[in-house]
Amino acid sequence: MRSLPTDTEAVVFDCDGLLVNTEDCWTVAETAIFAAHGHPFGPAQKALVIGRTLEDAGQAMAHHFGRPGAGAEISAELLGRVRGELARGATALPGAAELVRACRAGVPVAVASNSSRELLDTALESAGLRDFFAYSFAADEVRSPKPAPDLYLTACEALGVAPERSVAFEDSATGIASARAAGLHVAVVPSLCGTDLDHDWLGGSLDEPELLNWARELGHRGAGRRLLPEGSES
């Protein structure tokens, strides 16, 4: 049975859709762009862009619209619309603050986001989470963003912990691929319902009691317990 080890030495969090409810902001912006190009926007279209960088999302949209040369133009439009939505404010998702607080009491923590530095800082600040993290890393600060492993490798290096001794929290297939490529354990709270995602732990939200109990064990290496999926027996 796969699980999250309590002898974890660092925890690295994604931001959008995992810690902060920015996906609503992105969805409003994406819906408007799809509509402007005469296309509907639903779960299948969201799956094309979720977890991607602005640049990659723009390219995916351009391809979907049959305009492969318009990626940069669409990315710029997406950035402007997301800025506008984030300016209205974004909130921390249920359990995010409590979980981060519990993790950082026992081990070092960081954020590794496929957003740009500008949008990452705006999201964390808006949700009241920016001061929780001494380290955060954005897509425009590494050679290759997610699904490449660079963001997670950079975060683990900054925290001074080997990736295989670390846990990543993610919500999308793109982020999970990045964390796996870097060698981290992966806890997943999906942003899209009905998706079959690779995971070591899978839950419906960050405020599940078993998850908080696991976080409170971090730093107590003699504890020897592992977080098991709901319904399992230890």
Mean pLDDT, as a whole number?
Answer: 90
Oligomer: single chain
Helix content: 40-55%
Give the biggest sheet. 6 strands, parallel
Level-2 CATH architecture of the largest domain:
3-Layer(aba) Sandwich
What is Rg? 17 Å
Provide a descriptive summary of the structure in words.
- It is built from 9 helices and 8 strands.
- It folds into 2 domains: 4-21 and 90-227, 3-Layer(aba) Sandwich (Rossmann fold); 23-87.
- Mean pLDDT is 90; it is low at 222-226 and 228-234.
- The strands form 2 sheets. Strands 4-3-2-5-6-7 form a 6-stranded parallel beta sheet. Strands 1-8 form a two-stranded antiparallel sheet.
- With 234 residues, the protein is α/β, with parallel strands linked by helices.
- The N and C termini lie close together (10 Å).
- Strand 5, helix 8 and strand 6 (185-188) form a beta-alpha-beta unit.
- The protein has helices at residues 23-36, 43-49, 54-64, 71-87, 96-104, 117-126, 150-159, 173-182, 209-217, and strands at residues 4-5, 10-13, 109-112, 136-137, 166-170, 185-188, 201-202, 226-227.
Give the secondary structure arrangement, pairings included:
Layout: E1 4-5, E2 10-13, H1 23-36, H2 43-49, H3 54-64, H4 71-87, H5 96-104, E3 109-112, H6 117-126, E4 136-137, H7 150-159, E5 166-170, H8 173-182, E6 185-188, E7 201-202, H9 209-217, E8 226-227
Helix pairs in contact: 1-4, 3-4, 4-6, 5-9
